[in-house]
Every structure is written in structure tokens, then in C-alpha cells.
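fyi for ur records
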Amino acid sequence: MWGSAVWPVTLESDDVILRPIRLRDRREWTEVRSRNAGWVGPWEATNPLRGGAPPTYADMVRSLNRQARQDSALPFVITERQDPGRVPPIVGQLTVSTIVWGSARMATLGYWVDQARAGRGIVPTAVALATDYCFSELGLHRMEINIRPENRPSLRVVEKLGFRDEGMRLKYLHINGEWADHRSFALTAEEVPEGLLNRWMSRRAR
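which gave:
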């Protein structure tokens, strides 16, 4: 397990920055999410319990930070440098969760991005940064991403990065009010000896 030596951490590549989510991000995070309700909402995880309400922003951050202290999650916001001298604004979120140690050494990764910033390579870069960190610094072996088969923009991310399609998981997660099928994609450390970010940047430059 990693402990305080490697978390919290900030990861950067060009204009894309991953940093830990904070309670004081509430106003900016809420504004971005509200503006993207129609873009993110159809893929949003929901509470399957009858009458279950979604967590508040503060509850979400406290839960994620608790998981980080327990070495079971890496909760990031995605920020992007845009104007010199300006604090990079939040343009999305990326969470590495369900980290399993022992003989498995695997995790699951999820993300969303501001629709206005989609298609510019921000999410593939963020996913590559987080995956490389998990493989090289934390010693994880496998990264998994599960995506609704109708979510074409998200599918493009794993396609660009070369994640392996491992097939359909039926009724895998409760999404937007119902149990939904997901396609499962994975990558192991042996498949990217050069690093996922290096591979992504090489492909992007072609």
C-alpha cells in the first residue's frame, strides 16, 4: 500500500493537470456539473435503494478522501491551463477506485469532462497520467474501465488509448435510475512497458 508518501499527488502533462479534489472546490465543481447535466446525467451512477438520494458534494468529497486515506481510491479533478497567470479551471473529474491489493493489484477508473472541452484529448491524457501513476508508482498491475455501450464519447477514450475490450457485463451498475449493462475494458502493466502516456502521445502525433 502507498500511504502518505505518494498521496496526495498532482500529475501533469502539457496543459492537463490532475490534482486532488477539495471541499473548497464545491462552487466551481457544482457550476461545471450543473452546466453539463444533460451531457453527464445519462451516465451518472445512482442510488439503487428506494428513495435513496445522491450524496451532497461535501459527502462525496469526504467519502473519497476517506477512501484515499484507506489506500483504496485516488480522487482527482481534471484541470486545464488556459490563460497565463490564471488558476487552471476545473474541466472534469477522474477517480481511480476499488483499488485491490494482494495478488490482484488492480483498480477501476471513471471520468467525466465538460462537454465544451470534449474531443480535445484532455480525458485520454488524464487517463494515461493516472494509469501510469498506478502502474509505476503504486505497483498496480491492471486498470479497468467500464462504459455504457451507448456512451460513444467515452468509448472513444479507451479506443484511443488501446484498452482491451473484455466484453459485456450485464446489469453491472445502477445508472440514471436503473441497472445498466456495461462494456468492460482493461489494460495491464505488461501491455504498456513504454508507459501509456508515451504511447498516447506517439499516436496523437501521427
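The two ends are 38 Å apart (CA to CA). thats all i got for now
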